[in-house]
Structure formats: C-alpha cells, structure tokens
Amino acid sequence: MALKVTPFKFEPFSKKQLKVLTWWLPNSPVYDKDIIIADGAIRSGKTVSMSLSFVQWGMETFDGENLGMSGKTIGSFRRNVLAPLKQMLKSLKYRVKEHRNDNMVEIRYRKKVNYFYIFGGKDERSQDLIQGITLAGMLFDEVALMPESFVNQATARCSVEGAKLWFNCNPAGPYHWFKVEYIEKIVEKNGIYLHFTMDDNLSLSPKVKDRYKRMYFGVFYDRYIKGLWKMAEGMIFDMFNEEKHVVKTVPDRFATEWVAVDHGTGNPTAYIWQGFDGKDFYSSREYYYASRETGIQKTTGEYSQDMLAFTKGKRPPIICDPAASALITQFRKDGFTVIEADNAVLEGIQHVGNLLNDGQYFIHESCTNLIKEMSSYSWDIKAQQRGEDKPLKQNDHAVDGTRYGLYTMRHLIAVKHDRTKMRKSGAM
C-alpha cells in the first residue's frame, strides 16, 4: 500500500525568501551571478527557500543532468532538508523518487528529469566521496559545519555550463574559512549575499520567537538568534553561579543515574556520578585523580577498580569518551555497561549551558574539582583565530565528563515532556 504524503502548507514568503526563490530567473537583475549565500539566525526561513529554489532552478535549467546536495551528514540532510523539500515538491506537482541505496533523488517535472545526489561533508575524508562526478550545481546546507576541502572538491565538480552554487548556514566565528573565503569575497566570487533574521520567516509567531531566544546564551545567542559571526571568547559557562547551582543536598533516589567519565593518561581522570530525578539533573559525587600531582600513573585495571569502589559495588551505566578505548574495554571486562559518549563539543556545551540557564542542573558541594572547572572553563582564543571553536584544554576534565554525561542523556528531557503530554491527554 502506498504511503499517503501529507500536502505541504505554504506560508507567505518574506521579501528575502522571494529573492532566494527568484534570483536565477531570466528577468532577475542578478541573473548572471554564479553563487548565492544565505546566512543568519536559526528558524529564519533560509533552508526552505534555498532548497526549493535550488530544485526549481535545476529543473528549469537542465534536463538529464546530475546535481548535488549536501549537509553535514547524509542523515541530517534527509531529516532537516529533504523531508520538507519532498513535501513541497509533491505539492507543486513534481514527481519525486528517492533511491536511498544510491543516495540520489530522481525528480521529474513536465518532460524533464534530473538526478540530485546527496553527500555528507562532515570531515576531511568527505572530499573523497564526491570525486569523479560531474555536476550542474550544488546546494550546501549548513556549510559552516563542513571542512573547506570538501567544499572545494564539490565546487570543482560543478563543470556543466550554467552551473551555480548555493550556500546557507548559521554563523560561526569571524575567522571561519567560509566567512573569510566566500562572504568577504562575495564580489570577486560573482555572488549575492543575503542575511536572514527570524523576522524573515513570516510563519513564526512572537511567542515562538521568544521561546527560541530563551534557548541560547552567550556566543550561541549572538550567532543563532542575532545571526552574527561572533567570536567565542572568555568564560564558557558565564551563567554558572555557585549560589544558584551548587547545592548541599541532592535527591535520595534518582529516576535514572549513571557515571560520566573523562579519562586522561598524563592528564587527570574524572568520574562524575550524575542523576535525573524526573525534572532536574544533578552531579552528586566525583572522583578525580591527577597522576602528575601524585607522580604515579595508574593502569586501566586500577582505574576500573577505583570505579568499583566509587560506585560502591553497584553497576550503573558508564558514559565514557569514545577516545578512551582501552579503559572502555577494561570497564566492560569487569562487568560494567559502557555507553560511548556523544562528544559533540559545541552541541554539548550549548546543552549544558541551557540546563544551567533554565535552572535544571545542580552540583553537590562535594564536587570541588567540578565546581572549580565550571568557573574557569574558557574558550581557546588561538583556536578562534584559526576559525575553530574549542574550549581551552586546561582545567577541563571534570567539566568535559559532565558534558559527556548530560549531553548523551539529553533524551531524558524529551521522555519527560512526552509523559507530561500523555498525562494531560489522559493517555496515562
């Protein structure tokens, strides 16, 4: 039985979205431009207008050609771009057939057919995946998350006469390669540049805009809400307040609990006992061993025995940095369940900051190393000058472990919200 596709409900387009949708038309004053860049705030309508315009341009301009579309990963592109794009196209009477094994979407309109290949641009190795293909155009979604090598390789594949390039992203740091090499050189690239804010998405209500504004802090607010290419500098968790976030007592029992681990060979190793009580997150105890201070390096077996003592004979799940492969193997050998942490740095920092801002994360006063690091966790200015967002690699072991645990277990918040909705609806 064929699945029924829900028709896409088009909202009125803003002036900037209409510019994106029409810049390539023969009567457009910028018809001769080779590239378009749309950057700015989240939820500002960039992706919807860029993806739809890219396909419409491709179908009007070519027949029987290959075109490319990319996100940070193929999975994220399918979820964030392709799913709504397919709905829009089908509502506009395009015929869309996805060939998942080939990571390709076959699109037909009137008597034309073109083939849109999907690529992921998550790291330097991604450039190898795009070699050899000839393209008539390329759409880069969230290009600021991609390495320059991948983008260079992809743009080099666009050798069909009349090819154009489409880029959209949320801002990063002011020295990011894309800002330096594309936005600041937009004239010599023969392109057009559009900066979006949430006001350019006419479907957002004031209430929804306010909700998004409350979700971000510091540099993330500047980038994702204001849409600025802003440097990450100074304290990372500048909202951390010992009077507010450090507590003398924690719940006697947690709905879910685990131990978060950051392991160092020459650097300190930290274990943080964390829990979720159905509403808030807590770090209730810590283990912290610095071999440089003691002058004695421990083996993975000794660290595992220390974990056994720290957990007092229990076997809670251990959330560990995937890079600590030898320690993970030892933990599992000794009967512990190990979850390899989701160690996405910026996303994890943003998540912990949101919990602190919302008053949903607390630290017991006995976690002295964690408290000290929360107050000193800083951005690496030298990395910023290379266009990279990284924390300074000092005084970061307990706080990195905390980030691993809280970000990896972030689904607990969604579970809580789902249960609340079910109770209100009478389903529970």
- Please compute the radius of gyration using only Cα atoms: 25 Å
Helical residue percent band: 25-40%
Describe the global form. elongated
Mean pLDDT: 91
> What fold name goes in the CATH topology slot of the largest domain?
Rossmann fold
Q: What structural class is derived from the secondary structure elements?
A: alpha/beta
Tell how many strands the DSSP assignment holds.
15
End-to-end gap: 32 Å
Count of discrete alpha- or pi-helical segments spanning 4 or more residues: 16
Largest sheet strand order: 3-4-5-2-6-7-1-8
Beta-strand content bin: 15-25%
CATH class group of the largest domain? Alpha Beta
Q: Supply the CATH architecture of the largest domain.
A: 3-Layer(aba) Sandwich
The main pleated sheet reads as:
8 strands, mixed
Counted up, domains total 2
Task: Find the CATH superfamily of the largest domain.
Answer: P-loop containing nucleotide triphosphate hydrolases
Unreliable sequence segments? 1-5, 416-428
Give your account of this protein's structure.
This protein has 428 residues and is an alpha/beta fold. It folds into two domains: 15-224, P-loop containing nucleotide triphosphate hydrolases (Rossmann fold, 3-Layer(aba) Sandwich), CATH 3.40.50; 242-415, Nucleotidyltransferase, domain 5 (2-Layer Sandwich), CATH 3.30.420.280. The chain is built from 16 helices and 15 strands. The chain has helices at 15-22, 46-61, 74-91, 148-156, 177-183, 206-214, 218-224, 242-245, 291-294, 300-310, 325-333, 345-357, 368-374, 381-385, 397-408, 411-425, and strands at residues 35-40, 66-71, 95-99, 104-109, 112-120, 137-141, 164-169, 191-196, 246-247, 256-262, 269-276, 281-289, 318-320, 338-340, 361-364. Strand 10 (256-262) and strand 11 (269-276) form a beta hairpin. Helix 1 packs parallel to helix 2 (46-61) and helix 2 crosses helix 3 (74-91). Mean pLDDT is 91; it is low at 1-5 and 416-428. This is Phage terminase, large subunit.
